[in-house]
Amino acid sequence: MERLGALEAELMDQLWAARGPVAVRDVRDALQSTRPLAYTTVMTVMDRLFHKGWLVRDRVGRSYQYRPALSRGEYTARMMRDVLSTTDDRGLALLHFVDTMGPAEYEALQEALRWHQSHPPRAAESARVEDETS
Amino acid sequence: MSLALLVVYVTVVGVLLPRQLSQAGWTSHAPRLAAGTWLVAAASVLSVALLAAAVLVTSLHTLGDAFVLLLQGCGWPPQLRAPAGSSDYAGLVIIGWIVSRTVHSGYLVCRAARRERRQHRCDLRLLGEPAGTGVVVLDHPRPSAFCVPGDGGHIVLTRGALDVLSPAELAAVLAHERAHLSGRHHVIVLLPAILATAFPRMPLFTLALSEVRRLVELAADDKALRRATPATLAQAVLRLAVPASAQHPVTSPLNATGTATTERVLRLVTPRPRRTRLAMLSRLLVAVSFAATPLAAVALPAATDLASHCTEATTSRHLADVGLE
After folding, report:
1. What pLDDT score was predicted for residue B312?
2. A81, A90, A95: which to substitute to probe chain B, counting the most B Cβ within 10 Å?
3. What pLDDT shows up at residue A61?
4. What is the mean pLDDT of residues B256-277?
5. Which member of B117, B210, B250 has the closest CB to residue A104?
6. Interface ipTM above 0.90
7. Residue B126 falls within a domain, yes or no?
8. Is B247 contained in some domain?
């Protein structure tokens, strides 16, 4: 399972790097130097990627020509949308560093931080208290 | 009498206390103790509610006897009998309801989180670029950082985040996320999440979920402060909390997450009030008493004749055995 995931990633890299639809044989040949794989293995993984919706394919003659359903950037944008839209009930899967905030609050905090940075003695004192209590 | 006391306990700790605790100022300065208090209070209310239902079936003293006998390894107590009256059945139905709801929502919540995480891990493997141990970079302009627990745990940074963070701020962000992973904060949040899903009307459980979420962030901040100065961490928080778009109208400047972030930043840059040992000790005692209450409720009535328990029970059983033969 784990290995196949890594293999899927490798094949997707190849397909994103390719400048057009490719056949299974092309992908196998491109990987030949770094990772020699059986034709059927490559075919199986690409079939899997097709069924998972990562690839689309067109029949050309007796074989298929594959291309990515979305570009890498589009997939990344989709993932980030998923990640950022994580609401309270869905948010158990991952932990965000911080949620985004409204512009007004952001401005107010930026202001507060600037004020505190221009008063180094207090900041230093707070750091010391921090050390003592932790 | 004992039933009334147990119900009062569930009402006070489950409904009245949560508001007090969520408004208490000290929780921000001792996030781990506060999170522990919430979890212990939730577990306490759940077990006392179960106990109250059990009291409908049999007396507290008998329950205590059974508990002590089981604890002493004397075997199953002979006093327990098959359910007879309507209150017996009511108690059993309530126990069944509480247990099945908890187990069911535990299953649902854990399964959803695991599925979502697996999806994210799959996406990360395909889209992310490994950068150091457990760190993955996503090629996306929006500054953001998060961690996906499970399978060793991954910290994800976007290209946008790397662009806006200075090296020191980046170290602070990584330390914060590592604190989440090493502290198993996703598991800590899962417990109140299960109870809040199972019993959404219970103020203690729903407030425990939102409070524990807030408190694990503060705990991770505290741990990150070993690697970064408060000002650096506060600046990093602000850099990654930048509004998605300046043109967007402000929906509500005082929404819940917003005020939580404000509090988090101000907590970093303002000196903390000195906490006295006495105050912390008394809060620890409160937490311990939550844990002790259900145990005491069961054990105390029976504790009076603790010493004679095993002998009495075993001799009476021996007599019964002899009588049968």
Report:
1. 53
2. A95
3. 87
4. 76
5. B250
6. no
7. yes
8. no
CB atoms within 10 A of CB B42: 27
Domain count, chain A: 2
Which range marks the domain in which residue A110 is found?
101-134
Residue owning tokens 């990640």:
A83
Q: Which of A52, A68, A84 is the last residue of a domain?
A: A68
Instruction: Note the pLDDT tens digit of each residue in A31-79.
Output: 888 888 888 999 999 998 898 888 999 998 888 999 998 888 888 898 8
Is residue A88 in some structural domain?
Answer: no
Return the axis-axis angle of helices A39-51 and A2-17, rounded to nearest 10°.
90
In total, how many domains does chain B have? Answer: 1
Residue B248 covered by a domain: no
Alpha helices, DSSP H only, in B128-276? 159-164, 167-182, 185-198, 203-224, 230-240, 256-269
According to DSSP, the residues that pair with A96 across neighbouring strands are B146
In a domain? residue B57: yes
Task: Give the residue carrying structure tokens 């962000």.
Answer: B173
Q: Which of B121, B193, B269 sits opposite A92 (nearest CB)?
A: B193
Q: Of A51, A78, A98, A117, which to mutate for an interface test with B (greatest number of B Cβ within 10 Å)? A: A98
Q: Which residue of A has its CA nearest to B263?
A: A109
Partners of A126 on chain B (C-beta within 8 Å) are: 230, 269-272
